[in-house]
Write a structure and sequence with these properties.
CATH class of one domain: Alpha Beta
Strand order of the largest sheet: 6-5-8-7
Order of helices and strands: HEEEEHHHHHHHEHHEHEEEHHEHEEHE
CATH architecture of one domain: Roll
Structural class: alpha+beta
Helix content: 40-55%
Shape: extended
CATH topology of one domain: Chitinase A, domain 3
Radius of gyration: 32 Å
Number of strands: 13
């Protein structure tokens, strides 16, 4: 929606004069143009300098990639429209308090430095040397803000039904997307048709020796490197990277499906020699057997009326009372400071492996069932805990449906994002300044 704004308003009058500055030269007053407003966007403005900078970036990028750009007028129009839509979104982000502090920005810049094979200090120094450090920080902050806003605003517009999930899981595309990815390290001890049985047996024994070393804990890559340098037998290898089973050689595709991460298989006999494979990584897939622990605990936190030492004394006293026969749940309801479990008598129910704070999980994993722990401290306070049971649960179906929903959401996101951008652009006040 486009509206007209009266130029007599104080806000508009101010916008027209911020681009000029009066200076004295040879006794005469001159009006020097520093910048100018080229568009009003709700409560914000787009400046000529912003447009010029963005166009310069596009030109530099095209020159580096040896690309031909569209006509100047088309570039200017497209970039100006992009700046307007960015402005609308940034104003919305400000209204919902989406902000990123300097520590978060520094972590992103550190990742960018790592991707450029540089330390954080080296990367910052390079940006400063090129005069783009502040500009880069601003661009990173803007991009993070836009992504966070879009993620929140667009995802709430997307609905995924159970029927869509079922259809996706039963489709060929769904089966391909849901299949696991494997990362295998590989080595080959080759032989040829002219070799004697004795020579092949020697290579087979050597292959078994290499597998034994790796099975006993030596690093696969170190063993392969040492084998190449030893010159006992020639060693070959292939870098497969991350692949789905069906994209691996047929010799390995069925084997890797039954391998656990960190497992080794071989010697695998083929026409060209003895193969050894090591499953260095596995991701995705639908099989999810999760270890779960049923825990209950009591937590006491130091506060205004109970200092650290008093808290330690009280948690020890509560432990003694339980050991002497008092009911754990009753004491938890009366004394525990954990609001999330106090009503249930301290019971946290079945918790997935990795679902607890690390310092808490370390203690719990060492506990025998039905034994009250010694008091221990975490960042939230002092605890005593009891493991009521352990089990392995097959969450494959829940995991599959969750992954399918996310895949469908990702497919719908871009289209819904474009629809949302069109809507907020139409609803915004925008006026171009000639």
């Amino acid at each position: 929606m486009t509206c007209k704004l009266s130029y007599s308003t104080p806000f508009t009058a101010y916008l027209f004069v911020i681009g000029t500055f009066l200076v004295s030269h040879s006794g005469h007053t001159q009006r020097v143009l520093l910048d100018r407003v080229i568009a009003l966007v709700d409560q914000d403005v787009v400046l000529q300098s912003e447009l010029d900078l963005r166009i310069a970036d596009i030109r530099n990028s095209a020159a580096r990639d040896n690309r031909t750009l569209p006509p100047e007028e088309e570039i200017t129009e497209d970039i100006l429209e992009a700046l307007i839509i960015e402005s609308i979104q940034l104003q919305m982000a400000e209204q919902v308090s989406i902000r990123f502090d300097d520590d978060t920005l520094n972590r992103v810049l550190a990742n960018m430095a790592q991707n450029n094979n540089m330390s954080f200090e080296q990367y910052i120094a390079a940006l400063e040397a090129n005069g783009v450090y502040l500009q880069t920080r601003d661009q990173v902050r803007r991009q993070m803000t836009l992504q966070e806003l879009q993620r929140g605003m667009v995802n709430r517009r997307i609905t995924i039904t159970d029927q869509e999930i079922n259809n996706f899981l039963n489709s060929e595309m769904g089966k391909e997307v849901m299949a696991a990815d494997y990362f295998i390290d590989h080595m080959l001890i080759p032989f040829n048709s002219t070799e004697s049985d004795q020579e092949r047996d020697a290579k087979l024994k050597y292959s078994a020796d290499l597998i034994s070393r790796i099975s006993e804990g030596e690093n696969f890559l170190d063993v392969r490197t040492a084998a190449r340098q030893s010159s006992i037998f020639p060693i070959e290898s292939t870098e497969f990277g991350w692949r789905k089973a069906e994209n691996l050689p047929n010799l390995f595709s069925e084997i890797v499906k039954d391998m656990e991460e960190g497992a080794i298989e071989g010697p695998i006999v083929a026409g060209n020699g003895y193969h050894i494979i090591f499953l260095a990584g596995k991701r995705g897939g639908t099989e999810q057997i999760i270890k779960q622990t049923n825990i209950r605990h009591i937590m006491l936190t130091p506060n205004e009326i109970r200092n650290e030492q008093q808290t330690i004394s009280e948690i020890n006293e509560l432990r003694d009372r339980i050991i002497e026969g008092e009911d754990f749940a009753t004491i938890a309801r009366q004394h525990s400071d954990d609001a999330s479990s106090v009503v249930g008598g301290g019971d946290l129910d079945w918790v997935n492996e990795g679902g607890m704070p690390s310092e808490f999980e370390i203690i719990v994993n060492q506990l025998e069932e039905n034994v009250i722990s010694e008091p221990f401290e975490t960042i939230t306070g002092w605890h005593i805990a009891e493991v009521l049971g352990r089990r392995e649960t097959d969450l494959s179906d829940e995991y599959s449906r969750s992954q399918a929903e996310q895949a469908l959401r990702n497919r719908k996101f871009d289209l819904e994002l474009q629809n949302w951008l069109i809507e907020i652009r139409e609803e915004a006040f925008v006026e171009f300044i000639e």
